[in-house]
């Protein structure tokens, strides 16, 4: 036993499949090689997303609704494709190799996009700042480059963060404590990359050249990959303990349906389950029975398999299916908040282009750069949250995280509602100023400083510290053990569908309000539209959604799993949310 003391207790291995020493691998030492990639990848993504609506309208001559729809569709694809990447990682290649292949596809897409905006015959010709309409082949090459990036993001996004979390041993109390702060500081690196994009790259794109604005993050991405592979000897790799982990997810309801006519035993201990020795020897985690979705418990009823009946599932397998159903319930009520988040790179930018953006007599701020205040707020708030808020609340609640994950989400959603209410009020004020000064033209500047939009950006930044980080941690923490990459795609797919939902809402609202000769709420002329009505519509939806979230979270029961041979279990969160703090 003495010889094994220095090895990790969770069974992680190196790239060759050999056990790794706890002292020389993993922890923040390994994560330091990963955060660089995350920062540069986010700089690349936000360098495109933050100003894409401007490129589409000024360079490709798309109208407002089409450009907003195309930005949302691309952003949605970037966040949806991780479903496939996570499945491939959990079932076939593992996180490291899925990330490796996908990152090369991502880089290829960035190189092609840089070419699309740089090489003369691939971009629209411009004279005196006015660009001609792009040809079909130019548009096709541009969008093909964007969607190659989306495919690459599908394999990198769900695996790099979970790979980072894998560097901490849950069976080691000291490392488990370090892991509590991991997602906060992981997202800090994300925010740093986003800040560089919204402050620096957006200015370069609009004032120097689009090619340079896309070329810089491309070079940075290649550099970060070199750093990532230098750190390979320090990484821990989780061994897949089920060959096809997603199979149990489908097997449980099938067996439960087959046993639908059999009565459940009154005592859950009579359901089929392996003993603790099995879980201790295999290093798997036993998940304890919970009294939700009881119809699935029928999959674990003990039956005589000699009669040809299906073999029963274990309680742990059944609880895995319950976890996915519970997370799906929470996931549904994150779609509207993701729709609010989608405004930052679309309508907020278009709103900003109508305002006075001057700092002094010569310098003019790009409208998309105001998004930097979202990330700047996050960068300032994350250390305060981790160093002050969490210890303060930990003393009051006894929870290692300070507040439960669902309480964190609810707080973020509430702040988001305040932000969209302020956005609506500010748009009402903008419309009043337009009437006072008789402004009608689409290119006329409203005599209001762009900084009047600052409160809505800052509040969305504070909200993201609670709900963006909280969502990522919640879906990783609550996923079945062998499906944590797939579990984190609840986070990415929620953002993706939120973008698609915003695209759908913008299109429908434009068609309905612009029919019969009426003025569309979201027209090409932002000075003759009614964004205030659309923001009010989002405000009502967000308020109703918060009520649905409170209902769903009060019915959610956190995962309870054993990590030791003794009959003990870890239930970090306790009961689900009762009231917001």
From TrEMBL:
Keyword list (alphabetical) reads:
Membrane, Transmembrane, Transmembrane helix
Q: Which GO terms describe its biological process?
A: transmembrane transport
Report the domain of life of the source organism: Eukaryota
**Major location, coarse class?**
membrane
User: Membrane spanning segments where?
Assistant: 96-117, 182-204, 210-231, 323-344, 364-385, 405-428, 448-476, 488-509, 533-552
Topology relative to the membrane: Multi-pass membrane protein
- GO cellular component, as recorded: membrane
Q: Which InterPro entries match?
A: MFS_trans_sf (IPR036259), NRT1/PTR (IPR044739), POT_fam (IPR000109)
Where does this one sit in the cell? Membrane
The protein's GO terms of the molecular function aspect are: dipeptide transmembrane transporter activity; transmembrane transporter activity; tripeptide transmembrane transporter activity
Family the UniProt entry places it in: Belongs to the major facilitator superfamily. Proton-dependent oligopeptide transporter (POT/PTR) (TC 2.A.17) family. Belongs to the major facilitator superfamily. Phosphate:H(+) symporter (TC 2.A.1.9) family.
According to UniProt, the name of this protein is: Protein NRT1/ PTR FAMILY 5.1
Record the organism: Nicotiana tabacum
């Amino acid at each position: 036993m003495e010889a094994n003391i220095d090895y990790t207790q969770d069974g992680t291995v190196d790239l060759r499949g050999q056990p790794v020493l706890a002292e020389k691998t993993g922890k923040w030492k390994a994560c330091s090689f990963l955060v660089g990639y995350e920062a540069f990848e986010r700089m690349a993504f936000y360098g495109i997303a933050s100003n894409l609506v401007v490129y589409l309208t000024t360079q490709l001559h798309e109208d407002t609704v089409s450009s907003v729809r195309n930005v949302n569709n691309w952003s949605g694809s970037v966040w949806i494709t991780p479903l496939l990447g996570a499945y491939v990682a959990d079932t076939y290649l593992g996180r490291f190799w899925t990330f490796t292949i996908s990152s090369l596809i991502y880089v290829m897409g960035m190189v092609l996009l840089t070419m699309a905006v740089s090489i003369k015959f691939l971009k629209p010709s411009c004279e005196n700042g006015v660009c001609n309409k792009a040809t079909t082949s130019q548009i096709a090459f541009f969008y093909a480059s964007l969607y190659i990036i989306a495919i690459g993001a599908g394999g990198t996004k769900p695996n790099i963060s979970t790979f980072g979390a894998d560097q901490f041993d849950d069976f080691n109390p000291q490392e488990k404590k370090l892991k509590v702060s991991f997602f906060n500081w992981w997202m800090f690196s994300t925010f740093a990359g986003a800040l560089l994009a919204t402050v620096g790259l957006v200015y370069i794109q609009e004032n120097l050249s689009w090619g340079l604005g896309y070329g810089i993050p491309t070079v940075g991405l290649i550099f970060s990959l070199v750093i990532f592979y230098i750190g390979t000897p320090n990484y821990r790799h989780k061994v897949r303990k089920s060959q096809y982990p997603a199979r149990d997810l489908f097997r449980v309801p099938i067996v439960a349906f087959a046993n639908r006519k059999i009565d459940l035993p009154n005592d859950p201990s009579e359901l089929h389950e392996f003993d603790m020795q099995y879980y201790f020897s295999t290093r798997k985690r036993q998940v304890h029975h919970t009294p939700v979705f009881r119809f699935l418990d029928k999959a674990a009823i003990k039956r005589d398999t000699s009669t040809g009946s299906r073999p029963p599932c274990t309680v742990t397998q059944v609880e895995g299916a319950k976890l996915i159903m519970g997370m799906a319930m929470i996931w549904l009520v994150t779609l509207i908040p993701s729709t609010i988040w989608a405004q930052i790179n679309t309508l907020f930018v278009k709103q900003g282009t109508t305002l006075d953006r001057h700092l002094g007599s010569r310098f003019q701020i790009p409208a998309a750069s105001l998004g930097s205040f979202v990330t700047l707020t996050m960068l300032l708030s994350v250390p305060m949250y981790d160093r002050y808020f969490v210890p303060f609340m930990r003393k009051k609640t006894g929870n290692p995280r300070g507040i439960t994950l669902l309480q964190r989400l609810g707080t973020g959603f509430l702040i988001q509602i305040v932000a969209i209410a302020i956005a609506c009020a500010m748009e009402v004020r903008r419309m009043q100023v337009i009437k006072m000064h008789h402004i009608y033209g689409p290119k006329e500047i409203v005599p209001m400083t762009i900084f009047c939009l600052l409160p809505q950006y800052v509040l969305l930044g504070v909200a993201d510290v609670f709900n963006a980080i909280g969502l990522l941690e919640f879906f990783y923490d609550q996923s079945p053990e062998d499906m944590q990459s797939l579990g984190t795609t609840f986070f990415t797919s929620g953002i993706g569908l939120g973008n698609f939902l915003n695209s759908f809402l913008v299109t429908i609202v434009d068609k309905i309000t612009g029919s019969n000769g009426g003025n569309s709420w979201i027209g090409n002329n932002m000075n003759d539209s009614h964004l205030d009505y659309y923001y009010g519509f989002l405000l009502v939806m967000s308020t109703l959604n918060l009520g649905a979230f409170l209902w769903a979270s009060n019915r959610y029961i956190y995962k309870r799993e054993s990590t030791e041979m003794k009959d003990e279990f870890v239930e970090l969160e306790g009961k689900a949310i009762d009231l917001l703090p």
